Amino acid sequence: VQMANDTNGDDQRSAIAAEMRQVAENIQRLTASAEFNGRPLFDGSVANARIQIGNGSANITNTLDVAAALQQVDLDTLGLTNGATSGGTITDLDDLFDGTTTLLDNNTAILQYIEDIDAGLAQLNQQRSAIGAFENQLTRTIDFIDLNVINIEATRSRIEDTNFAQETSEL
Questions:
Q1: What is the DSSP string of 37-90?
Q2: How many CA atoms lie within 13 Å of 35's alpha carbon, on the beta-carbon side?
Q3: For residue range 98-115, what is the model confidence (pLDDT) as tens digits?
Q4: Of 90, 99, 74, 79, nearest in space to 18 by CA
Q5: Long-range pairs of 30-39 with CB within 8 A, sequence gap ≥ 24
Q6: Beta strands 50-52; 39-40: pairing state
Q7: pLDDT at residue number 141
Q8: DSSP 112-140
Q9: Apex CA 122: angle with CA 103 and CA 75, to 5°?
Q10: How many CB atoms lie within 10 A of CB 69?
Q11: What pTM was estimated for this model as a whole?
């Protein structure tokens, strides 16, 4: 928003543009490097990914499909390089922040790009929310399994105590 302020000169706008580029590069770096067990998470290659959360691997009710939360995320899909500001003509960050571009040289274009960023962040937050929901579901499943283990151990202990008492009384 500061970049759209008419009190900023060219030097201030260039500094703000450099900071915006660094943020965009950081988003690009993070989404490109996020992996789990050697599999990239946000390149769109995780299709039909299932996690077994119960016994009986053939039973679909014992699996969790996480592919919906692991869709492709990059600057293009977030609308930061091919969003409304450019009309779909920006191919990479150099087109937007090369120092000679006229794409962000007026308040309207700057404010539109800020809207593109907001829309991209909203999309990213939805995806993060879906991942968080899956994480919560896995945590609850683990808690349930742990409780079952405790109950089974307690039942086994009672049975052993009963058997021991019965054997002792027969002596």
A1: TTEESSSS---S-EEE-SS-TT-GGGEEE-GGGS---STTTTTSSSSTTTTS--
A2: 6
A3: 655 556 667 777 777 778
A4: 99
A5: 31/73, 31/74, 32/74
A6: unpaired
A7: 82
A8: HHHHHHHHHHHHHHHHHHHHHHHHHHHHH
A9: 45
A10: 20
A11: 0.63
